[in-house]
Structure formats: structure tokens, C-alpha cells
Design a protein that fits this description.
The chain has a single domain, classed as 3-Layer(aba) Sandwich (Glutaredoxin), CATH 3.40.30. The longest helix has 17 residues. The protein contains 7 helices and 5 strands, in the order ββαβαααααββα. It starts with 18 loop residues before the first strand and ends in an 8-residue tail after the last helix. Helix 2 runs antiparallel to helix 3 and helix 2 runs parallel beside helix 4. Strands 1-3-2-4-5 form a 5-stranded mixed sheet. Helix content is 45%, strand content 12%.
Length: 190
């Protein structure tokens, strides 16, 4: 009997997908989902923050689909992670928020093309839930961190309290930048 080996696809998990300066000393993390109106509003705030703190902040979006309320949030999350595999996360992420009321599988395929995703197996990956476990891992990580509702923000791993407004988040980022400057790392020799 012939031994068939299937190609193993290495998946880049959400926790390794960043937008902004990859070497920034401040990481803004959001747990959210694509059908939630508050998350869509928060996405606009994040865009402003990335512009305001260009080079100083990197952003990481972690998935926390509210599937009891939003049945399509899981597949939308999988679609964004599929796009991340080809370097098109941010484009897909923004398209999903712009089209949050129309996130059926066929629409997700169309958005992937618009976002520049060239993976010929995109639709198969969605249908087969190729990225489902990674989304569940994000969800569980959120639960472990105490996330109960979305959007939930963290700065350098610490939860952000208060409103998810530009003013509040920028104040928190400013404090984190000050902390980082105080703890400027001593360069070690290799």
C-alpha cells in the first residue's frame, strides 16, 4: 500500500500578526469580532492611533467571535487569518468591518480578492475551517485574560480600562511609552 504524505501547512497564528512598526516597544492588542458595531467603531480609533503613533506602536487583533449573537463572526475571523497568511491581514480586516452586515462565505471570497489575497484554496480553507482552531485559541486566550465583552484592549499585555476612545487609548499609550523609556534596555553584546 502506498504511503501518501499530505502537505502540512504551517499557520501563522493571530498572535503573530502585527500592523505597524514590528519593532515598536508598545503593543496595542484588541480582542474583537467583525460583526460588532462597537468593534467597528474601535477599528476607526485604531487607525487614528496607528497614524498618530506611527513607528511607536504596533497593533495586534485577536479574535473573540460572539457566535451566539453573530453567527458569521467565526467565518469572518477565519477569513482574516487566511488573508494574514498571504500578508493581507490589514486590508481584509478593514474590508470585513466595512462590510460587517454582509459576511457570508461567498462575500468573504469576494473580499479576499479585493484585499489582494491570491490563495487559490481560500474558499476551501473557509469551508474546511482550516483556521478554526487558531480562532478558538484566540478566544480561549481572551477568556484566560478576563475578556467578557468586545472590544477589549490591552497595552503591552495590561488591560485598558475606560472608554475605547482615541483620547483614552492615546493617554494609555503615552503612559506606556513613558514606562518603556524609563526601562530603556541595556544593549548586550552578542
Amino acid at each position: 500500500m502506498a504511503n501518501k504524505t499530505k502537505d502540512v501547512k504551517e499557520i501563522i497564528p493571530s498572535k503573530q500578526v502585527f500592523v505597524g512598526n514590528p519593532d515598536a516597544q508598545v503593543t496595542l492588542t484588541e480582542f474583537g469580532e467583525y460583526e460588532n458595531e462597537d468593534c467597528a467603531k474601535a477599528n476607526e480609533v485604531v487607525k487614528q492611533l496607528l497614524e498618530e503613533y506611527e513607528g511607536k506602536v504596533r497593533f495586534n487583533f485577536r479574535h473573540f467571535p460572539q457566535t451566539k449573537i453573530h453567527q458569521r463572526s467565526m467565518k469572518a475571523a477565519e477569513a482574516s487569518l487566511a488573508a494574514a497568511q498571504t500578508g493581507n491581514f490589514w486590508e481584509m480586516h478593514n474590508l470585513l468591518f466595512e462590510n460587517r452586515r454582509n459576511l457570508g462565505t461567498t462575500s468573504l471570497k469576494l473580499y479576499s480578492k479585493e484585499a489582494g489575497v491570491t490563495n487559490k484554496h481560500f474558499l476551501d480553507d473557509l469551508i474546511n475551517s482550516t483556521y478554526g482552531w487558531e480562532i478558538r485559541n484566540d478566544f480561549q486566550d481572551g477568556v484566560d485574560r478576563g475578556v467578557k465583552e468586545v472590544p477589549a484592549f490591552f497595552i503591552n499585555g495590561e488591560p485598558v480600562s475606560g472608554k475605547n476612545s482615541f483620547e483614552n487609548l492615546s493617554k494609555e499609550i503615552d503612559m506606556a511609552l513613558k514606562k518603556v523609556k524609563k526601562k530603556a534596555p541595556v544593549k548586550q553584546r552578542a
